[in-house]
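Lecture 7 notes: from sequence to structure.
We start with the chain below.
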Amino acid sequence: MRITQVQSYNQNYGTPLRAQKPQTSTNFTGLGSSISKGYDDFVEGIANKYYVGFYKSGFASWFAKTTKGKKWANDMPTHMAVLGSTLISGMYIVRTLSNDKLDEKRRKTLAINDALTWVVSTACTYWLNRKLEGWWEDVTTRFVADYVLDHPEIKREKLLGNWDPAEIKIVMGKWHEVVNARIDKINKKIKSPGYNNERKELAHVDPIKNIKDFNVEVLKNPKLSTYIDGMGIRKSLFIFGMIYRYIVPVLVMKPANKIGKMLHDKNEAKNQQQNQAVEKK
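Predicted structure tokens for the same chain:
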């Protein structure tokens, strides 16, 4: 990434924040160029045909209003992965317990292993996702800044001026102040005696909290939304996959065996007591 730090901020959005350095890019030729162009066209197609239509749909508008400000809505890929693992783990547990080819002790141990894997994996996934939220937001912000630097046409200079992508965090922080200042001017005009229109006063906008909202509300670039969403999904699924498939199954193996043996021994002791009682009669 070329963007490594946030520079000082000039509150005058209409003037350059600092001189832009000429950027160099690597030119791919031959097969590499074809693959790169094909991938770009593919992403562009998804952005234009899917994201534009979806974000303008009535469902998207309703869902955005319903989930606005709710933290759980920002982690839907993890929720979907956990839902899938719940169904799969539940199916494995039921099938294991009903498998007559395995002895009772083995069935219980495997079922306990599946249940513990699901419980610990789910807890660790949500915990690690929360721990990495701030770091991942910084990673995504640096990516967006780098993307804007390579695509200056999406900077919306008529609205924001020739701002430096290296200062994207500061621009995000000042955005609501700039908009609200303009809203105050409009409201002042609306309330003036010479203004005969019955137009209602405009409400102030809230501060932008993350880079995804900054793109949706300010930059409004569908292709960039595709990248941001894709990065978030990849991160969530990678964390869940590594924990659920490789890490936790190894960690819960010994506890599952101990719990299975304890339950089996307890059941055996109970059966022996019942048999001895029957023999005495």
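Points to note: Residues 222-280 form the longest helix (59 residues). Residues 30-68 form one domain.
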